[in-house]
Amino acid sequence: MSIYHGLYTAKRLFLYFTMMPAAIKEAAAYFLPDSHRNMDMRGYVRPPCLQRKEKYLVTALVLMLLLSRCMGIKKQDGARFLHNITAPQSVMLQVNTPAGLQQMDMEQYLLGVVAAEMPAAFAEDALAAQAVAARTYALRKLLRGGCSRGGDVCTDAGHCQAWCSDADMRQLWDTSYDMYYGKIAAAVNKTAGQVLCYDGQVIEALFHSSSGGATEACAAVFSQNLPYLQSVSSPEEVRTHTVTYTAAEVRKRLADAVGETGLTPSSLAEGLYIAAYTPSGRVQTLQAGSKQLSGAQARAAFSLRSTDFTVSVTGDTVTFTAAGYGHGVGMSQYGAHALAQAGEDWQSILAHYYPGTALQSAAGVLRQ
Q1: Beta strand pairing call for 207-208 and 331-332
Q2: Does residue 272 surpass a pLDDT of 70?
Q3: Which 8-state DSSP code applies to residue 83?
């Protein structure tokens, strides 16, 4: 091949790799009449040897594009199986929804999680912190074998994380759909691919609605002492909820939870009381006659919003007043909103509720 032909071929290779759309257009030209198929992008006729070489090159490129399209690959980072990766910071999930298993891009899935788990009216940095917590939770599930009900994660808030479909969002927000969707999308995008790690491992990113001024240590609720899930202050307005039961209802609920307690209407005032508190001020033990209930058992038995409750007996009625909402471990969503309103960014919010953790990319974690 002459020097001219060599330089010309090198130039054409450069054009094909840097101007792919045009290359594809030229590939299509091979199916046109002879009078057109041997012209380059400027209309100049190419030498016959280059016509053959370029035809092979373009055919190979087109086949590669078609093959990658069929396999569902956009970019490969080698971290996981092909169906789990579509871009360096994007992971594919099998989400167990009420309509069955659906394959979703992690970032798209998070739009539905943040919409379902946190009020869209909250500050954007609170929404961004929620996006990172939710992404971290889902990635940990994926790395540990997925959801026990099938798929990588389910949409049951009591089991994995809540999730809204686009139709759910439209119904929830009505005329504010465009505004709130854009706000949540911005919060997810500004944290793209970011997850929380402790000592290089993806954390158990628990969160709850609100606390009574301080979060709870993980060991007090889930019997596992995790260094990044300790009790921290939560500067938010304390929200309380009160429920009242008759003495007969209390005795029945106790019997269903722990068996007969020996309590009678006359002994209820002295026999039902809080026997111990956790360091954060929540109920550790509720004494009920001859039986004891943990704070979590009492919360479930009396349908309380949290274990941060008081109990009072007046005549034939028992009143429980609970502060906050949820198990109290990890990030308080209302606390995150309060911090964001005070000027804290999403990184600072996460560092406050998950002390000692560091942000890493999901793709980087998967490559480990």
Answers
A1: parallel
A2: yes
A3: G
